[in-house]
């Protein structure tokens, strides 16, 4: 999912719309925008599908105001449907407010049970609604204090943008698992999950929101409040490896630069003799360039991606995912025929894509296909909002390296080590790698309850 906010800039909804387009890779199943106009009246629109399918009839003209928040989302089966498309809007006697969030609360079950016992009735399955109820429950007078208190009742990897009639709050989890940054736009501000949204909006990157920080944006400017003095920099390694756009900088590290360095290290750790390096478009191209540069093996475009087909990893249902793989890639026959290929991919989740691509390349005449993965073997479930599904579905949760190689039909298979995954990152000294190592940066509340 991706979140965006704009404060103090005319036609906020149009800027949010364009910014969200640059976050579309983070979710394709729904999106929406809410604005407050100068009279404090709320305007909102949301829908399912791509932004270009949602905003089709001049809806932006009906979203006036110089402040707003927006979101794009992907959903697993439990959190699908229009009701769960954010931003959400809430009425309250102390003032209406809107919330959009990203990530996952690891104590969501405990929080919802607590709220349930206190009479809350839920309309969605979202963490944003849980946070809204916690904010609403607090009897502190000052809004920032109610948000501080609410954030201290939740745990996990998350970011939230909260908008009241006269200000915006941008919040990042205290472990620093999810990315969030702030930029300047004239006299106003923009907040985004990724800095790549700023370019199209004409915003200038200022800095990342710090772990455990709430940024308040209003007519007085920008102010910082720490909701927790416990804070860590455990940025999700998969943001660098797969999710984020290469033109984004996250916690001081450019995503393309990270991937290229990971590709260089991948060659040093898993060399192989071959005629050409081929990257799986799009998210693996930077790593493939790094592998080619370090090895001296020429980089070639052996695969072409069909545009306008969604990312297979974030489609919620397996049958749709498999169809997506078939539709999205073509081998370039005249390039790969008779050649030994190093196929560089960013990660293997279920193995669906890898198996299909190896087959495509062989059918196109490749004599050998050596698969090199620019991240470690993914063996564990993510609890922070990345839908890697159950351990049973992960290719490597129950297979050795040799069994995984066999399952995807490659001549050889090599993975980057967790050490190099960490050291490729220039800005974050210790990123979360829990889906590779099983070492989660937080306690896992829901799992503790299940094990009781
Ligand atoms: S477990 Fe994996 S996908 Fe989840 S936050 Fe950590 S690195 Fe990212």
Bound ligand species: iron/sulfur cluster
Strands, count: 21
Number of domains: 2
Helix content: 25-40%
Q: Within the largest sheet, what's the order of strands?
A: 3-2-4-1-10-9-11
- What percentage of amino acids are in beta strands? 15-25%
* Name given to the CATH homologous superfamily of the largest domain: Aminohydrolase, N-terminal nucleophile (Ntn) domain
CA radius of gyration is: 22 Å
CATH architect. name of the largest domain = 4-Layer Sandwich
Strand-pairing-aware structural class? alpha+beta
CATH fold type of the largest domain: Glutamine Phosphoribosylpyrophosphate, subunit 1, domain 1
- The CATH class of the largest domain is identified as Alpha Beta
Distance between the termini: 32 Å
Describe the 3D structure:
The chain is α+β, with helices and mostly antiparallel strands and about 450 residues long. It folds into two domains: about 230 residues, Glutamine Phosphoribosylpyrophosphate, subunit 1, domain 1 (4-Layer Sandwich), CATH 3.60.20.10; about 190 residues, Rossmann fold, CATH 3.40.50.2020. Helices cover about 30% and strands about 25% of the residues. It has a seven-stranded antiparallel sheet. A six-stranded antiparallel sheet has the order 5-6-7-8-12-13. The chain has a four-stranded parallel sheet with strand order 16-19-20-21, with helices on both faces. The longest helix is centred in the middle third of the chain and has 15 residues. The chain starts with a strand and ends with a helix. Iron/sulfur cluster binds next to helix 7 and helix 15. The site of iron/sulfur cluster (SF4) has 12 residues, from helix 7 and helix 15.
């Amino acid at each position: 999912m991706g979140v965006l906010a704009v404060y103090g800039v005319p036609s906020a909804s149009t800027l949010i719309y364009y910014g969200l387009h640059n976050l579309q890779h983070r979710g394709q199943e729904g999106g929406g925008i809410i604005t407050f106009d100068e009279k404090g009246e709320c305007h909102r629109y949301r829908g399912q599908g791509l932004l270009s399918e949602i905003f089709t009839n001049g809806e932006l003209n009906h979203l006036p105001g110089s402040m707003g928040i927006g979101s794009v989302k992907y959903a697993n089966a439990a959190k699908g449907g229009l009701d769960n498309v954010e931003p959400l809007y809430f009425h309250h006697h102390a003032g209406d407010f809107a919330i959009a969030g990203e990530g996952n609360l690891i104590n969501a079950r405990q929080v919802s049970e607590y709220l349930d016992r206190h009479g809350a009735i839920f309309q969605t399955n979202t963490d944003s609604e849980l946070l809204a109820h916690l904010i609403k429950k607090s009897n502190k007078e000052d809004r920032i204090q109610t948000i501080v208190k609410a954030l201290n009742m939740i745990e996990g990897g998350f970011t939230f943008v909260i908008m009241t009639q006269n200000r915006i709050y941008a919040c990042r989890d205290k472990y620093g698992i999810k990315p969030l940054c702030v930029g300047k736009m004239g006299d106003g501000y923009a907040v985004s999950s990724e800095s790549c949204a700023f370019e199209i909006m004409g915003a200038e990157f200022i800095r990342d929101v710090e772990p455990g920080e709430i940024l308040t944006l209003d007519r007085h400017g920008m102010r910082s409040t720490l909701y927790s003095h416990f804070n860590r920099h455990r940025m999700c390694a998969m943001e660098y490896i797969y999710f984020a756009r290469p033109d984004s900088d996250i916690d001081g590290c450019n995503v393309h630069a990270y991937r290229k360095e990971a590709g260089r290290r991948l060659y040093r750790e898993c060399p192989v003799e071959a005629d050409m390096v081929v990257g799986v478009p799009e998210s693996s191209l930077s790593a493939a360039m790094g592998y080619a540069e370090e090895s001296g093996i020429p980089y070639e475009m052996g695969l072409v991606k069909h545009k306008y087909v969604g990312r297979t990893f974030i489609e919620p249902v397996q049958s749709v995912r498999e169809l997506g793989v078939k539709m999205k890639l073509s081998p370039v026959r005249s390039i790969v025929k008779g050649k030994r290929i190093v196929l560089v991919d960013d990660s293997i989740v279920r193995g669906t894509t890898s198996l299909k691509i190896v087959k495509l390349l062989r059918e196109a005449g490749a004599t050998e296909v050596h698969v090199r993965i620019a991240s470690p073997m993914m063996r564990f479930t993510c609890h922070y909002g990345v839908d890697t599904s159950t351990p049973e579905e992960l290719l490597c949760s129950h297979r050795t390296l040799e069994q995984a190689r066999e399952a995807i039909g490659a001549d050889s298979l090599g993975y980057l080590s967790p050490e190099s995954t960490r050291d490729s990152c220039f800005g974050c000294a210790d990123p979360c790698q829990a889906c590779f190592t099983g070492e989660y940066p937080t306690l896992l509340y829901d799992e503790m309850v299940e094990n009781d």
